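For anyone still unconvinced, we reproduce a single protein record, the chain in one-letter code, the fold tokenised, and leave readers to judge:
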Amino acid sequence: MMETINTTLFLLINATPASPGWLIRLAVFIARDMISIVPLLAVALWLWGPRQQISTQRHLVIKLAMAMAVSLVVSWALSLAFPHPRPFAEGIGYQWLHHSADDSFPSDHGTVIFTFAIAFLFWHRVWSGIFMLILGCAIAWSRVYLGIHWPLDMVGGFLVGLLACLSSQILWPGPGIKLFRIVQRLYRVCFSALINKGWVRD
């Protein structure tokens, strides 16, 4: 039943030779490049921001890092427990972006971007979380549209991201706070020259 739904949804979304070339090129850009916002935004949140908000931003970065670690471990375990070939490996639909024929469930891209989006929704601001969720949906759509993932791979990524953020919140009062203090001390030692020049926040 689930396989039938998965295949039906995939064929409804997947691009065909009749699809507009500009839309396929846009999907390639979204699928391949938009995920880079995750490390860039995390670094920016740690290094810069209003003085009264920088501590809160850095808490978010550490919570996000913890959630990301949990999500990637869970994603790896699920891929071993429930191996599933990609659509093109089964000869279904059309493939528009090169990708190795490894297991597809859950989507690594989906797991990362949805973990990031849910973290922002939980610990930053509602509007930023909604924006990231929209971006996550765009990335999920693009990778299905280009024929390298099934729709349920993305649903799996969202659920793993949700579980990871809940786990990070549970761990925060103990290990999370300790990790934050360690990283903060290391940062102040390694970036002392830049901090003294005022290029980055203390």
Q: What stands out?
A: The chain has a mean pLDDT of 93. The first helix runs from residue 2 to 13. The helical segments are 2-13, 21-33, 37-47, 54-81, 108-123, 126-145, 151-190, 192-197.
